[in-house]
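step: validate -> pass
step: tokenize input -> pass
step: predict -> running
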Amino acid sequence: MNSRVGHPLARDAMAYVLAGGRGSRLKELTDTRAKPAVYFGGKTRIIDFALSNALNSGIRRIGVATQYKAHSLIRHLHQGWNFFRPERNESFDVLPASQRVSETQWYEGTADAVYQNIDIIESYAPEYMIILAGDHIYKMDYEQMLQQHVNEGADITIGCLEVPVEEAKGFGVMHVDASDRIVDFVEKPANPPGIPGNESMSLASMGIYVFKTKFLFDCLIRDAADPTSSRDFGKDIVPYIVKNGKAVAHRFSKSCVRASNEEESYWRDVGTIDAYWQANIDLTAVVPDLDIYDKSWPIWSYSEVTPPAKFVHDDENRRGSAISSVVSGDCIISGSQLYKSLLFTGVRANSYSRLEGAVILPQVYIGRHARLRNVIIDHGVRIPEGLVVGEDPEHDARRFRRSEGGICLITQAMIDKLDN
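step: predict -> pass
step: emit ->
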């Protein structure tokens, strides 16, 4: 155990967020931004959830490794996460792939993204490292995971979701014994192993790892010297430790943070158009599965200074209204009708338009008489007057990105082509 009785382990830990992924399944949403920088929930970005979990857990040293199209992500981090103070023993480092090890080498994998910054991590001398993925939506107290890691004397502790066996085929899956010690790790298995005592469920990796810092460095240095390695935690580091050390599974249910109205553990990979749309629209429910209004576990982000939202006009068929919807600051709903929609900052919805099941990113302009159903509209798009989407699937698919679930993603480039 930690020598200081009652001292939170999080104060001796550094959170290291891997935020370099492209997220290609989000299609045009990640053409200009990395997946962790994609907007979510009206005000935040996806990465804000992992960062807020770290902050709320008591961790005050954070590093974020970026790589793919990182400008908007880095700008967001500088604007929204610049309140850490060195004089309080706090730090927040943005660590782009900058060819620090070799003039020709970017980050080759998730493990390499940590290895290349060992000297920076060493300068802060954290006792523990918690490695996080920056592209999932969830609320979790990492202190609970750190405590389990120390109490069980583990070399690595891996955050795990309990998922039905059929769904586990797309994950890295832990084969555990009765004490949750990991005896095997299988990447995307055709026949996932069940949990002892509950064979219908499997333990799937969340991409969250806890190490003692010195042990992690030893693993990374050994891995970097292996010419056959792919420099990846899931493919290389974890299997090696499972085979040669003590690897323990930490069940998400033990550290998931729930508000009083949240009945189940909430974790989402919003990595597809359909999953992204659904998770945002879910927030419009009377009692959503994810409570973003929970002041005891706030989701921190860059908060723009904006005027309040406004609803105007009260004429027949021209009434600014929103039902079961989330509307952010600086939105003007001018004679437009909204139903089960989520609007980010600065949206203008003009007269006689109707939005249903719409996820509208910031600074979108919606022209008069537009009818938009089951759509995602990218940042800054200008929807022309009278555009109809969501009523003719074949016509939609010829003009826009239409998902398997029938969700249309609309970008400005797609709108521009309509005039040609």
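step: describe -> Residues 137 and 196 are 28 Å apart (CA to CA).
step: cleanup -> pass
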